[in-house]
């Protein structure tokens, strides 16, 4: 029951903030969701995959929470809880740091600022790190093969989104400033030796 309750609280905080942020920006005239919008080819396929995965994974997570079973021992379930909480905190902090520059997917026409402060001084993609940790944490708390496969697939799609969409967009939008940032801060965690 403990893991069930804690996971419900984590998911409520994570998805509650996610949808609040999206609603708040939309309410203020800022388009928030650009996933698979005005995209073609491989980029569109990646973004559609991310969108489908992002809506499918919480449904499967909730099903597994209701079942409340895990093939992993208690100490790994607890590590999963810590990962899910850390992922939620990291995601919320990164979205707050981005302020009005936060988007779901990359905008084609919409202009944003390059954010390099706060968590972004240690990770170029802390929001994605937050998603990954939250997904991995819930998978560890309610481990089964189907949830493992779906979690791995969604994390792989998020990685493809970063490598094949986000980084290309950032290079085109911010040029040398982004390249200098990219040469200083790692994709997921840490600063590069100078």
In short:
Helices cover 68% and strands 0% of the residues. With 194 residues, it is mainly α.
List the helices and strands and how they pair.
Layout: H1 2-27, H2 41-67, H3 74-98, H4 126-141, H5 145-182
Keywords:
194 residues, mainly alpha, Four Helix Bundle (Hemerythrin (Met), subunit A), 5 helices, 68% helix
Number of domains: 1
Which class best fits the helix and strand makeup? Answer: mainly alpha
> Into which percent range does the helicity of residues fall?
55-70%
- Major beta sheet, specifics? none
**CATH level 1 class label:** Mainly Alpha
* CATH 2nd-level architecture: Up-down Bundle
State the helix count: 5
Head-to-tail CA distance between termini: 48 Å
Give, in order, the helices and strands.
HHHHH
The name CATH uses for the topology is: Four Helix Bundle (Hemerythrin (Met), subunit A)
| Strand fraction | under 5%
Based on CA inertia axes, which overall geometry fits? globular
Low-confidence spans: none
**Overall pLDDT level:** 93
Number of strands: 0
The radius of gyration over CA amounts to 17 Å
């Amino acid at each position: 029951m403990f893991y069930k309750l804690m996971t419900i609280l984590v998911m409520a905080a994570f998805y509650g903030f996610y949808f609040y942020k999206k609603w708040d920006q939309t309410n203020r005239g800022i388009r928030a969701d650009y996933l698979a919008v005005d995209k073609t080819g491989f980029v569109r396929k990646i973004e559609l995959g991310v969108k489908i995965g992002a809506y499918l994974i919480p449904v499967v997570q909730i099903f597994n929470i209701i079942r409340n079973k895990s093939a992993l021992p208690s100490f790994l379930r607890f590590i999963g809880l810590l990962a899910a909480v850390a992922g939620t905190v990291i995601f919320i902090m990164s979205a707050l740091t981005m302020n009005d520059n936060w988007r779901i997917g990359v905008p084609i026409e919409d202009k944003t600022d390059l954010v390099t402060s706060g968590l972004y001084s240690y990770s170029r993609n802390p929001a994605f790190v937050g998603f990954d940790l939250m997904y991995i944490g819930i998978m560890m708390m309610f481990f089964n093969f189907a949830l493992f496969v779906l979690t791995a697939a969604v994390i792989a799609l998020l990685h493809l989104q970063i490598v094949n969409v986000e980084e290309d967009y950032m290079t085109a939008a911010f040029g040398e400033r982004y390249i200098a940032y990219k040469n200083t801060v790692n994709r997921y965690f840490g600063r590069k030796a100078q």
